[in-house]
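Lecture notes, unit on protein representations.

Consider one protein chain, 177 amino acids long.
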Amino acid sequence: MIRLEPIKGEKVILREFELNDAEDLYENWGTDEEVSKYMLWKNYKSVDDAINSINYYIECYKKDDPFKQYAIEYNGEVVGSINIVTSKRHKTGEIAYCLSKKYWRKGIMSEAINLLVDYYFKNYELVRISAEAIEPNIASRKLLEKCEFKLEGILRKKYFCKTNKHEDAYVYAIINS
């Protein structure tokens, strides 16, 4: 099995999900409508939904899939997730992330994003990493700008969201200099 190397920061550790993280995933953000308001996935109805997600992540680790889902561990608790999908051919990646509401505005996600970006620029020699945030998710857009991502454009009406309407996606990227 291909193992993801843990990425350690000052506050957080980015690491593989394990089945014993299911309760944290379910409780901390998997069921929270406010956290998932701008996400495209459905909220979990049971811990089994979290287990199914983690089993999928584990299968991706095993086959060295371009999709890598990391648990964000803070003080021994899994408080969020961050993923990257890479293209070896193009040397690019795209990230997405989610964090438990009780940990918002503590610098946790900005550290997680910066750790992941630095790691993939150095170890995978990526040239570019992008991220999208839908128009009403102002906090995520500001977070990406704080992490030195630059707004590249707007994809109009790209996603049909939980707002029950199509939303514009703001595309941000950071280039490996």
